[in-house]
Write a structure and sequence with these properties.
The protein is mainly α and 318 residues long. The protein has 12 helices and 2 strands. Strands 1-2 form a two-stranded antiparallel sheet. Keywords: Membrane, Transmembrane, Transmembrane helix.
Length: 318
């Protein structure tokens, strides 16, 4: 437990190294994060307004992906604001925040694999797609995703509560998941578990990609066009999975850099945060929000109607 107190103190010292760097980093974070939060919130609003999106499996999974990304971005930005403004809160209150962040982090790749399998069924088993991909089954899959994603944080919570002292649980700290696993061996095991899981998911995605590729080569006309589009969609999912994998590996790379130079560590940590943690959440809106014709048309319609309403109100007031 003492090692964790030291790591929290080191984190505070690192943030205080350069006030100008800290303020610039905080400003850039807000500039990058909030447009994505607004975009994802807008897409969720459109999703909730169209019954078609709430009944089709792929859109249900897409809506869940958006919700997970929105929760992650909001919690991450909240933790960043606390850290960069030197706000420490009791560890007991950090635990549920860390658990939720861990759960939504694990939800992202699991949702990706569910969306890939749905595309595989739609393209390679078109006659059975309506039977297999139902809204009820999509909701069951989402429930299973949350159950699987919550296992690790709940196990870590029970171990922490049963082994930690009351002094440790009542101390003030920054919110980061390492407070849940102060032992280095558990930190290493957590990273290894994630990597194994992501390798399994990548294997399934490559299988779906190959099968859709073969279907695209054998198809003709509209079927060939649909298969090719599904192939590009899974390619973007593989990119998103790569970003998730890089996000898991980043803390270990940062730990090595920190041993040599603090300034370099701060730079690497900030670049990793923007390049992998935030960018991986921007791929989902790109995959379906802008590439899917039906969803894109709904977005354009909603934005135009909103702008026309604002213009009409302005004219009436004038």
């Amino acid at each position: 437990m003492a090692s964790q107190n030291t790591s929290g103190y080191e984190q505070l010292q690192l943030i205080q190294v350069d006030p100008i760097r800290r303020n610039i980093s905080l400003a850039l974070t807000q500039i990058v994060v909030w447009p994505f939060i607004y975009l994802i919130f807008l897409m969720l609003l459109i999703f909730s307004k169209k019954e078609t999106f709430r009944t089709e499996t792929r859109y249900i999974l897409f809506g869940h992906s958006l919700l997970v990304d929105l929760i992650f971005l909001c919690l991450t930005d909240f933790v960043v604001l606390l850290s960069y403004n030197f706000v420490l809160i009791p560890l007991r209150f950090c635990i549920p925040i860390c658990m939720l962040m861990e759960a939504v982090t694990a939800c992202a790749p699991l949702t990706i694999i569910a969306m890939c399998v749905e595309r595989y069924v739609a393209i390679c088993m078109p006659l059975r797609h309506q039977v297999i991909s139902t809204s009820r089954r999509a909701l069951i899959v989402i429930l299973m995703i949350w159950i699987l994603s919550s296992i690790n944080p709940f196990v870590d919570m029970f171990i922490l509560i049963s082994t930690a002292s009351s002094e440790y649980l009542s101390q003030l700290t920054h919110c980061h998941y390492e407070i849940m696993i102060p032992e280095k061996i558990r930190h290493f095991a957590r990273g290894l578990l994630y990597i194994v899981g992501l390798v399994v998911i990548l294997t399934v995605e490559v299988f779906c990609y190959v099968m859709i590729y073969l279907a695209a080569r054998a198809a003709s006309g509209d079927n060939r066009k649909s298969a090719s589009k599904g192939q590009r969609t899974i390619s973007l999912h593989i990119l998103q999975l790569f970003l998730c994998t890089a996000e898991v590996m980043c803390p270990y790379i940062e730990a090595v850099v920190m041993q040599y130079d603090i300034q370099s560590y701060l730079t690497v940590r900030f670049v990793n945060f923007l390049a992998f943690s935030i960018t991986s959440r921007a791929v989902s809106p790109l995959v379906y929000g802008f590439r899917d014709e039906k969803f894109y048309a709904a977005m354009v319609y909603y934005i135009r109607c909103k702008n026309n309403t604002i213009s009409s109100d302005t004219i009436k007031q004038s």
